[in-house]
């Protein structure tokens, strides 16, 4: 498992989403490292971590993170995640609450929606593309680039930034892992998500849940989380889209530091 590290102090672990890797936090690591020991892993199947054949259940990604904490001798950390990294962080916090001081999740709908937003449901149709037999072709022929473009409202990814993500996906094991991530969710995890039983326990860790104003995946999230979380704040970030750590890093760092 590959990770980057900077700074000293209380440990803070940052988990990326798809189609990215640790580098998505590049503009936040420096400011956060002024206060924390920042540890930024590549989840299994991403970046420079191993990309094994397997189901890629999100609970497996969570256990990978716990194993990394064990390896580094970290009993308790602050944790933040984006996209699948947010879901992974949530599973760490609910399965091992004694290991997590505080949690910041961003850019995904929380899993306790009372009234699923039809627009958000329709927007997840991209997962059918990524998880199908055509997923590999789509990822390596512009679909991933289009997802990056659509998920950003402020500024745009440069050609070099897109290349940082696309270069990994040209590797056979990496693109296969991406397909497995989404195929596992749709075929093995979606039923429990829809039943509201995806998360194994109550969320007792103080949590800040951030959603971008223009992020169709979660912008109309309701307060169904109140029955499942002891101390959670759901907050919309004005002007932000899905990839807000990259489109407005200064604002996201400020809000994270206030909470963490």
What does this structure look like?
The protein is an alpha/beta fold and 260 residues long. The protein has one domain (3-259): Alpha/Beta hydrolase fold, catalytic domain (Rossmann fold, 3-Layer(aba) Sandwich). The protein is 43% helix and 16% strand. It contains eleven helices and seven strands. It has helices at residues 26-33, 58-72, 84-95, 118-123, 126-131, 135-140, 143-150, 159-169, 172-195, 244-247, 249-259; strands at 3-6, 10-15, 36-41, 77-82, 100-106, 207-212, 232-237. The chain has a seven-stranded mixed β-sheet with strand order 1-3-2-4-5-6-7, sandwiched between helices. Strand 4, helix 3 and strand 5 (100-106) form a beta-alpha-beta unit. Helix 1 runs parallel beside helix 11 (249-259) and helix 2 (58-72) crosses helix 3. The longest helix is centred in the last third of the chain and has 24 residues, at 172-195. It is globular. It starts with a strand and ends with a helix. 43% of the residues are buried.
